[in-house]
Design brief:
With 139 residues, the chain is an alpha+beta fold. Helices cover 26% and strands 35% of the residues. The chain has one domain. The chain has a 4-stranded mixed sheet with strand order 1-2-3-4.
Amino acid sequence: YDDVNIKVDIVLEKKSTMLELSFKHSGTVNLPCDVSVDNFDLPVEGKLTLIVKFGDEYNDDNDEMLVVPHGEFQIDVSQYIYEMIVLSVPLKRINPGTEDGSVAPDILNKLSELSPKEEHKVEDNDPRWDELRKLLTDK
């Protein structure tokens, strides 16, 4: 992503046997449009809940639960924040201006210039067929 402007709020709730971390993010991600290839700011938002339990050894195999050793006093949540933001970006990224036609990017203008023009072919009337056509239309 070219430019990311996202605010992440984390709420830590300490319980007797575990910690519950609630992540919430909102902001914009600047990325290229899949149709026009022009960059635009896509609004994104999302939530994630992470349970942190204490155990004998570190284990992050489960996406929603993290096990840290008993003596640990720091938790690195950067990877969870990164994944939360990446998963909030849709697979098909289309600039809303491109969809409704309010933004006419250079590539669409160039495509319309280079598209084949319709040629109106003038029909050559053969007088021999005119009599047969009259029979069809006279019915």
